[in-house]
Amino acid sequence: TYEPIGDVYLKGQKIKAAEFDALQELGTICVMCNDSAIDFNEFKQAFEKVGEATETALIVLAEKMNPFNVPKTGLDRRSAAIVVRQEVETKWKKEFTLEFSRDRKSMSTYCTPLKPSRLGTGPKLFVKGAPEGVLERCSHARVGTSKVPLNSTLKNRILDLTRQYGTGRDTLRCLALATADNPMKPDEMDLGDSPNSTLMKSTLRSSASSACWIPLVRKSSTPSSVAAPLVSASSSSPVTTRLPLKPSA
Question: Does 200 have pLDDT greater than 70?
Answer without folding.
Answer: no
